[in-house]
């Protein structure tokens, strides 16, 4: 590609690319690939020539439907655009022949759109059904009954009924979605079937009493391109309408100070966990006189169960690169580093390709787009030490030194990489930047709460029905995320607690489920926002074991530099271990508090300061579980361990008066 | 200047002062384990935490510069509680073997634990069973006692540029050790012992060889003789509570004789001898242009080891004159033995050195056996000597003055300043000037090469010729000097220096790795002052005027650099691999 100029980008913005009429798009992110997406892609590739030579086979990153990997999206004439989940190579002929050829949806694989309609402005062609309470046979019955009614009315040549895999609505009884308008009916009873067929399918009228009016809780800002574009194609990113338009606006319409002002208006805060205002970080770095400044993209995602950054890097690498370049322009930095852990080879590969493509098209290098701004970006691999996500340790690692934190001040914005002022931004933070530039800081700030603006991506995992990537505006409640977006607890069990913020975070019990998620509220509950890991736990999970799991992670990942973290973490783990073996003693809870305090107050970096959080928050909300182990002794511990391995059901925790537990806390 | 308040006391200190140092200005001592006065903070221990008003976190006083308007609290209930807990955690990861530890009574951890009166442990002890590394024979790494403060690593890497020690592994398994899990002997270690001098605990100590010396002293068949190095006389008193720099030369003579040594020699004598040989070498090269310049001193065994591993392109520039320790050893077993009719096979030569590397030097090459025997049998550090004196029941400080044995005992002021950085240069210039001009140097105290600056330079006029000299101490300062020489050499230019002195340890031997604990720059200055005082008080202040030196040449060695001198007093150097594995 020839070096792009400002005018080329203006043309792309004015004339966005039109998708071809028919295509199949396979979601090839790490999660998808692990589930077999590459073999699915190969099967499509083998079969499509014989089926229809012109059929486009596209690649994309992930929409976020991890529970349904591998995911394939299909667009063909006369059909609503749908995602198919849990696709296996054996399903490929059916998708080609039945979906594209016969214009019929496949049963049991469709993931319905989250953009649900409220009006029937187009004739119904397809109907998706599913019993969202998971009652056996009910979905099949619904399909049968609706089919019979449609046949009776002679509509069966025009309308097909298919069983959906997921409708994005949960615990709302029988759900029927009419396509293509995506009008959705919930809690449909047998008696409603005739009405749906007669009034809606035949008559084109919406049944208001059944209509599901709640809009989807998700707002896709960071993930807007994920699953939609080919991450390996700069053309796709450019021609999708807004690719590098944020950079163009920054370079040609705004001064560096104005870019920072726009960020200030957006009130974007660091998405890596601490929530430091991004504009201020840039301002501080810019204000430091120096011959060179650096931008670092922190892609050292390491929380157990977290995969937000990986998904964004794999699905939309150019957005992160664009965000980094805008940051570079704003703070007067001409060098950027992506620090990505080596365990993310796909992310590394795609970012590398993005850098090469950007360089080849004049988006990186000297005098970008004909402006006076020059920028270069490089990748540095992290060797998988969790502590290297800490900014001073990360810098040490890039410089080739042992990845352990150093005291701050000096902050990296004053003395960072190679001694120069450096701004370190998380992947999600940088991915939010281009759209703030194209749509404006005020638009971004219109999402979220008073103190936490915009959206946040969460990786919801654990005992949840639909483990997936979720992007919601700040202020969405935990209940909405878990029940409305992710379908509630797996196997219909009772929710016990949600763990947020990974090993630095804490557990939040159901009593606080309606808390709007923001930096401040989570902190008040003894947890943190963190980078966005969210682990759902049901009644069968022992909170002491959960605390032990996260603590063990931090103990393993402690760099060993400072005594409170190195020894405190280890000793804390020993105490938890003896408690769960039924060998705890009465003074253990007080000792736990004492060690936790030393770690929180005297550890050098965030890892050690926050490592006690899972222990403290479980003690705060589930002290009786600790007490049960301590008082129940080894026989109780044996029963718990048998229950954990699935041999028996967990014994009920002995009733301990809360006051006795509280008394043990100094 | 920065104005702030510490514990409601106004304080005004220069910008960049740490909270820890600022507090000292107002007589507030914030406890710390990892911070060494002379070293950059490692921020490892977490003991020095303080609170700034309005801040929600406790901050480390060692590494946080005080800022204008800070209102700091160094001791309140929570801070002290956290300090206690942290200290208790550190103790839970430390073998409580104080009574049998080399640092017993001089350990910073022990003393802090005593201050805090940590009660019966409530936290279960966990110390990983790792055997100590005794591979060098000079320094012992006792990993179990390490508190991971990082001082040794900082000294080894940044001050000494040796990079033998680093942190390995992580979390509770973090340990200081040579990279790659090799032994210290296989690593680039030069045995300087600066790690042990800066270690707050007994994790790095000298290899204690006092039992071997006791055994020899008790052996009726052995004739034990001893020599004391220049710097030891002004440091050994610290182990007995005297101020640094107190000159105890004569008490040492008496005490060593009481310990059972049949003869007491002074390494200052052989320092004079080294100067005579080295100054002669310099004249050969500088005046007669036989041999390459610059001439580089070689009396520091850590420096020669470092050079052989890292800078072997300078081998030809090295003075081949042996170190004073080795010269005295070989003369004891040849010249002295002959004169007194003693069987050298029965002689047991012990040297009292400021240095852990001197233990290594004893068997460095075959030239260390020039007498036909091991020239020096055992080298003890100042710390080991102090221990022997205490064990022996000698009331050291109240002893009457003693005298050294003749033949190898008299010394000049030039010999005694060997123990300070710049001292060898100063002594050599005094003698070289005389050799070149036949006259005495007017101003014999060379201020240009004195002091604790890392690299010192000067020009001395010897007749019409300008001699450019450089003095470096602390191995990290060597490279810039050598690089300047290399650059000139590669460019075909005249060498920037004619004579270079290098001492591995900061401050020279008075700051050696085997000296009494607690070294910092303040102590280094006082110790150096003690040596210069000794120099000023000597009637003979030129090495070549030492009557016993004159006599040994006349009676035994012949000419400086002559065949016998060459056979007994000179050595060779070879390039060595940085890693032995």
List the topology elements.
The complex is a heterodimer of chains A (666) and B (581).
Chain A: H1 6-14, E1 23-27, H2 30-35, H3 37-51, E2 56-60, E3 72-75, E4 82-84, H4 92-101, E5 110-111, E6 126-131, H5 138-152, E7 160-166, E8 174-179, E9 183-185, H6 192-202, H7 234-239, H8 245-253, H9 256-266, H10 278-287, E10 294-299, H11 308-315, H12 317-331, E11 335-341, H13 345-360, E12 376-382, H14 391-398, E13 422-426, H15 427-439, H16 441-445, E14 455-462, E15 468-473, H17 478-485, E16 495-500, E17 506-509, H18 519-524, E18 533-538, H19 543-557, H20 563-580, H21 588-602, H22 606-610, H23 613-644, H24 658-664
Parallel strand pairs in A: 1-2, 5-7, 6-7, 10-11, 10-13, 11-12, 14-18
Antiparallel strand pairs in A: 1-3, 3-4, 4-5, 6-8, 8-9, 14-15, 16-17, 16-18
Helix pairs in contact in A: 3-4, 5-6, 8-12, 8-15, 9-10, 9-12, 11-13, 12-15, 19-20, 19-23, 20-21, 21-23
Chain B: E1 2-6, E2 9-13, H1 19-25, E3 49-52, E4 58-60, E5 71-73, H2 77-92, H3 108-116, E6 139-141, H4 151-159, E7 165-168, E8 175-178, H5 194-198, E9 204-206, H6 210-218, E10 223-228, H7 249-259, E11 263-266, H8 267-286, E12 295-296, H9 301-310, H10 324-340, E13 347-353, H11 357-361, E14 378-381, H12 382-392, H13 413-416, H14 423-437, E15 455-462, E16 465-473, H15 478-491, E17 499-503, H16 521-537, H17 547-557, H18 563-569
Parallel strand pairs in B: 1-5, 10-11, 10-13, 12-17, 13-14, 16-17
Antiparallel strand pairs in B: 1-2, 3-4, 3-5, 6-9, 7-8, 15-16
Please, could you describe this protein's structure?
The complex is a heterodimer of chains A (666) and B (581). Chain A is α/β, with parallel strands linked by helices and 666 residues long. In chain A, 41% of the residues lie in helices and 14% in strands. Chain A is built from 24 helices and 18 strands. In chain A, the strands form three sheets. In chain A, strands 2-1-3-4-5-7-6-8-9 form a nine-stranded mixed sheet, with helices on both faces. In chain A, helix 13 (345-360) links the parallel strand 11 (335-341) and strand 12 (376-382). In chain A, helix 9 (256-266) packs across helix 12 (317-331), helix 19 (543-557) runs antiparallel to helix 20 and helix 20 packs antiparallel against helix 21. A five-stranded mixed sheet of chain B has the order 2-1-5-3-4, covered by helices on one side. In chain B, helix 11 (357-361) links the parallel strand 13 (347-353) and strand 14. Helices cover 34% and strands 14% of the residues of chain B. The A-B interface holds A 385, 387, 402, 404, 406-407, 409, 555-564, 566-571, 574, 587, 591, 594-595, 597-598, 601-604, 609 and B 41-47, 49, 57-58, 60, 63-65, 78, 81-83, 85-86, 89-90, 92-93, 122-124, 126, 147-148, 150, 166-167, 169-174.
């Amino acid at each position: 590609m020839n070096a792009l100029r400002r005018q080329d980008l203006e043309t792309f913005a004015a004339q966005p690319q039109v998708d071809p009429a028919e295509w199949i798009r396979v979601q090839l992110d790490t999660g998808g690939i692990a589930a077999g997406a590459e073999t699915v892609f190969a099967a499509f590739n083998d079969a499509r020539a014989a089926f229809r030579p012109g059929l486009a086979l596209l690649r994309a990153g992930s929409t976020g439907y991890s529970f349904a990997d591998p995911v394939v999206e299909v667009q063909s004439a006369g059909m609503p655009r749908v995602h198919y989940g849990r696709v296996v190579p054996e399903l490929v002929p059916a998708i080609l022949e039945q979906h594209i050829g016969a214009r019929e949806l496949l049963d049991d694989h469709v993931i319905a759109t989250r953009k649900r309609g409220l009006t029937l402005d187009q004739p119904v062609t397809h109907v998706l059904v599913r019993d969202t309470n998971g009652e056996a046979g009910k979905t099949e019955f619904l399909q049968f009954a609706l089919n019979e009614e449609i046949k009776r009315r002679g509509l069966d040549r025009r309308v097909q009924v298919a069983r959906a895999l997921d409708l994005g609505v949960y615990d709302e009884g029988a759900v029927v979605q009419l396509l293509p308008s995506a009008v959705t009916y919930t809690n449909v009873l047998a008696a409603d079937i005739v009405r749906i067929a007669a009034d809606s399918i035949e008559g084109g009228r919406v049944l208001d009493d059944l209509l599901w009016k709640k809009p989807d809780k998700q707002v896709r800002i960071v993930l807007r391109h994920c699953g939609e574009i080919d991450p390996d194609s700069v053309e796709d990113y450019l021609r999708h309408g807004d690719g590098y338009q944020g950079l163009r606006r920054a370079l040609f319409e705004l001064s560096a100070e104005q870019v920072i002002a726009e960020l200030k208006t957006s009130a974007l805060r660091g998405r890596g966990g601490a929530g430091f205002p991004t504009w201020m970080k840039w301002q501080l770095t810019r204000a430091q006189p120096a011959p060179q400044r650096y931008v670092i993209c922190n892609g050292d995602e390491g929380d157990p169960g977290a995969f937000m950054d990986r998904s964004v890097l794999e699905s939309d690498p150019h957005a992160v690169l664009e965000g980094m370049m805008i940051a570079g322009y704003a703070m007067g930095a001409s060098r950027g580093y992506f620090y990505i852990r080596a365990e993310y080879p796909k992310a590394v590969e795609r970012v590398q390709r993005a850098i090469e493509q950007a360089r080849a098209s004049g988006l990186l290098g000297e005098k970008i787009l004909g402006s006076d701004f020059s920028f270069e970006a490089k990748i540095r691999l992290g060797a998988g030490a969790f502590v290297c996500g800490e900014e001073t340790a990360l810098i040490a690692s890039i410089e080739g030194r042992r990845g352990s934190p150093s005291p701050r001040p000096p902050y990296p914005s004053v003395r960072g990489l190679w001694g120069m002022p450096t701004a370190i931004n998380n992947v999600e933070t940088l991915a939010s930047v281009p759209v703030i530039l194209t749509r404006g800081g005020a638009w971004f700030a219109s999402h979220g709460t008073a103190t936490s603006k915009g959206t946040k991506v969460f990786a919801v995992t654990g005992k949840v029905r639909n483990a997936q990537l979720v992007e919601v505006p700040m202020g969405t409640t935990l209940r909405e995320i878990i029940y409305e977006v992710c379908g509630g607890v797996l196997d219909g069990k009772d929710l016990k607690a949600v763990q947020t913020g990974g090993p630095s975070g804490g557990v939040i019990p159901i009593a606080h489920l309606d808390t709007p998620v923001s930096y401040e509220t989570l902190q008040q509950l003894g947890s943190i926002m963190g980078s966005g890991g969210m682990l759902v736990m049901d009644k069968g999970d022992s909170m002491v074991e959960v605390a032990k799991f996260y603590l063990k992670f931090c103990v393993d990942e402690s760099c060993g530099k400072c005594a409170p973290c190195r020894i405190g973490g280890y000793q804390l783990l020993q105490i938890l271990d003896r408690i769960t073996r039924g060998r705890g003693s009465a003074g253990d809870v007080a000792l736990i508090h004492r060690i936790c305090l030393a770690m929180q107050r005297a550890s050098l970096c965030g890892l050690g300061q926050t490592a006690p959080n899972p222990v403290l928050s479980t003690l705060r909300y589930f002290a009786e579980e600790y007490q049960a182990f301590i008082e129940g002794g080894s026989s109780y511990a044996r029963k718990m361990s048998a229950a954990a391995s699935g041999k028996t059901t967990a014994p009920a925790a002995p009733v301990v008066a809360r006051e006795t537990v509280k008394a043990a806390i100094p | 200047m920065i104005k702030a308040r510490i514990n409601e006391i106004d304080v005004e200190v220069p910008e960049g002062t740490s909270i820890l140092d600022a507090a000292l200005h107002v007589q507030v001592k914030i406890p710390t384990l990892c911070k060494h006065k002379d070293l950059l903070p490692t921020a490892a221990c977490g003991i020095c935490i303080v609170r700034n008003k309005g801040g929600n976190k406790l901050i480390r006083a060692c590494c946080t510069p005080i800022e204008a308007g800070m209102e700091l609290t160094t001791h309140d209930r929570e801070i002290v509680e956290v300090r206690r807990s942290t200290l208790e955690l550190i103790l839970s990861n430390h073998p409580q073997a104080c009574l049998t530890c080399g640092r017993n009574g001089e350990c910073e951890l022990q003393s802090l634990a005593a201050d805090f009166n940590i009660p019966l442990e409530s936290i279960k002890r966990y110390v990983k069973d790792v055997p100590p590394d005794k591979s060098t024979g000079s320094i012992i790494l006792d990993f179990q006692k390490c508190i991971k403060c990082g001082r040794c690593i900082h000294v080894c890497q940044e001050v000494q540029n040796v990079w033998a020690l680093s942190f390995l592994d992580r979390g509770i398994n973090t340990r200081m050790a040579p990279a790659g899990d090799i032994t210290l002997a296989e690593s680039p270690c030069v045995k300087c012992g600066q790690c042990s001098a800066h270690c707050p605990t007994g994790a790095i100590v000298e290899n204690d060889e006092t039992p071997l010396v006791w055994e020899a002293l008790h052996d009726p068949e052995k004739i034990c003789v001893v020599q004391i190095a220049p710097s030891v006389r002004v440091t050994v008193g610290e182990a007995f509570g005297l101020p640094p720099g107190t000159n105890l030369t004569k008490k040492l003579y008496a005490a060593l004789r009481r310990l059972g040594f049949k003869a007491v020699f002074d390494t200052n004598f052989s320092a004079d001898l080294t100067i005579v040989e080295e100054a002669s070498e310099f004249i050969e090269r500088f005046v007669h242009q036989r041999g390459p310049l610059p001439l580089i001193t070689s009396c520091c065994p850590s420096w020669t080891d470092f050079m052989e591993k890292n800078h072997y392109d300078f081998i030809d520039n090295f003075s081949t004159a042996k170190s004073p320790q080795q010269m005295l050893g070989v003369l004891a077993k040849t010249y002295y033995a002959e004169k007194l009719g003693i069987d050298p096979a029965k002689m047991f030569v012990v040297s009292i050195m400021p240095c852990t590397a001197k233990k290594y030097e004893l068997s460095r090459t075959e030239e260390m056996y020039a007498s036909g025997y091991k020239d020096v049998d055992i080298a003890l550090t100042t710390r080991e000597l102090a221990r022997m004196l205490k064990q022996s029941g000698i009331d050291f400080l109240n002893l009457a003055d003693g005298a050294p044995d003749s033949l190898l005992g008299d010394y000049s002021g030039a010999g005694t300043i060997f123990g300070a950085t710049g001292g060898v240069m100063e002594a050599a210039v005094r003698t070289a000037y005389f050799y070149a001009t036949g006259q005495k140097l007017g101003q014999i105290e060379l201020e240009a090469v004195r002091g604790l600056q890392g690299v010192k330079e000067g020009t001395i006029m010897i007749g019409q010729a300008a001699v450019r000299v450089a003095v470096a101490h602390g191995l990290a300062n060597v490279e810039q000097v050598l690089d300047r020489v290399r650059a000139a050499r590669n460019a075909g230019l005249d060498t920037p220096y004619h004579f270079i002195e290098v001492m591995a340890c900061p401050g020279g031997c008075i700051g050696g790795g085997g000296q009494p604990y607690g070294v910092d720059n303040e102590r280094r200055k006082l110790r150096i002052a003690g040596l210069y005082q000794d120099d000023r008080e000597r009637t003979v202040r030129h090495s070549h005027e030492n009557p016993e030196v004159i006599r040994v040449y006349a009676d035994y060695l012949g000419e400086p650099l002559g065949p016998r001198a060459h056979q007994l007093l000179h050595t060779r150097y070879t390039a060595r691999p940085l890693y032995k594995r």
